[in-house]
Amino acid sequence: MSLNRRRPPPREPNDEEKNVIVAVRHCARELDDMLQGARRKAQVDAKLFAAKTAPSLFRAVEFYTDMYAKLRMKSRMALTRLFQRSRDLDEMVDAQEAIDETEECWKGFLVNLDTDMKSTTSQRPLSSSVKGVGDYIELLDPRLIDCSNFEECSLHQALSRFTSSLLIFHPAYLPDVAVRSRSSEISKVAADFYQLNVGFVVITWGPESAVRVWSKHLLKHLKWPVLWDRDNFFTSFLSFKRGCASLWASQMLDFCAYQSTTYKRSVQPLPTDIDWSTWNWVGGEVVIASPAVSRMLYKRELDARSQHASEEKSDLSFLPKLPDTGSSSRICFIHRADNLADMAPPGSIYQASLVCYAISQNKSESEVVEEIRTHRRLATPPESGRLQYEDATGLYYDPETELHYDSRTGYFYDAARRTYYYWSAESHRYVPANELVRVQQAEAHRLRLEAAQQAALRAVREQEAARAAGARVAAQLAALRAEKDEYASYAYATCLFEPADDPIAAVHSSSSANIQESLRLLGGGTASNSVSVAATGAPSTIHDNPPYPPGCPPPPGV
């Protein structure tokens, strides 16, 4: 019966899967079309293609960018997981196979191109021995160029104060997205690397024009030193990989595309007028110990060898001799990238740095890890993205550090310890600020008291000035009354004071009444009539029939 049982009907793809199928197939077709054109050009002149025309392959970044923009996926890994979840759908399987096969053909074409180039040209030989863990790098030689000011410097000047250092080697003729991606990863655990006293430096190489443009763009996005290896020393000294297969690998194109789409990291165009058959190295990453730690590591290895020399002598590996100079650093980890997207595992970098710091402190690695875990909270730099506003307190809460942030003062507050902190970029930790807050609060209280005292004194002075002005006015009115100049007294009183604001209105009320009564007697019955006519806008009537005796001026305003 089971043999005759019918298979379930094939599943129909949903909308998301349909979008994936269409976008991936379109990208695969575009890549294949570009690959066929490149093959035809390389068949005509492989050397010319590798030196001048091969950078046209970089335009394939646009195909990957278009695919990721349509799918809204963050990386190739996310796309691979989606393929794995849809293995029961034949169309999804076909789409995955289409792009995988195209990328494999892309890789084969570049490898064959490198083979043809090696048979026709003689490249500069690599150093006599391939450097590895245990070998040494001289920090004083070669002389490098600091790209921030283009002055000569050395690795010793940039890294002398660090226990260990991460050297990121990256060419200036390829986009800087790999360096910026590594910087972003380091920033997530910056507290740990700071406690391990790790330094970071970027070393680049290439034509000067390309280096200037590349370094200027990179220095806008990170604060690490960027040094130019003008003599192109490290590419051969550390035996970095080179060739078209490393420069134009599909993984590099895919990496640049999703870095641009997902993380909005701009991909700068490639430099023009450059011989790509000469400038075709890709870099890598190296962790070195400081000269002092290098000597401690060498001594520890010598002691370990002396203990096991009798029984395991044949199994012991060769130990490089410690240089006589005091500026040589031991290589603790090295990664030679196959292409731009091939980055070292972050755990390997962390482990090498941890070993160096533990040796310098004469502690075990577990003890150092426990110390880092204990102090990590107050060594994690603040980030606005982590802050959560609390209506109850009116403060921002950082769950990573368990601190409250007051945007008005700029201080962080630990409620459990009742301690204020401020973030110190120099020491890379939160510094207790209780005493500083007390001093600032006392200073603010003193300033408030001084302001209140000044306001009180100012109010007293204003009151005294008002009393003095009132007294002067009263004295002048009294003098006018004494001189029997009732019209002047009336004019002075009514022009200086409004009836509602007159502080001495009671003093002048009787005088004003007397003046009005005298005017009524002098003008007779026509006074009020003439005044009312003047108020209605006929001043000619007043001039024709003046109500006042000859030589007697009218009151002000009439």
From TrEMBL:
Subcellular location: Nucleus
Signal peptide: none
GO BP term (any one): mRNA splicing, via spliceosome
NAD as UniProt keyword: no
Keywords linked to the UniProt accession: Nucleus
Coiled coil region boundaries: none
Occurrences of domain OCRE (ranges): 386-433
A GO cellular component annotation in the UniProt record: nucleus
GO molecular function, one term: RNA binding
Biased segments, Pro residues type: 546-558
Stretches the record annotates as Disordered: 537-558
Domain of life per record: Eukaryota
Entries under Pfam families matching the protein: OCRE (PF17780)
Name of the molecule in the record: RNA binding protein 5
Organism (species): Echinococcus granulosus (Hydatid tapeworm)
Phylogenetic lineage: Eukaryota, Metazoa, Spiralia, Lophotrochozoa, Platyhelminthes
Gene behind this protein: EGR_00056
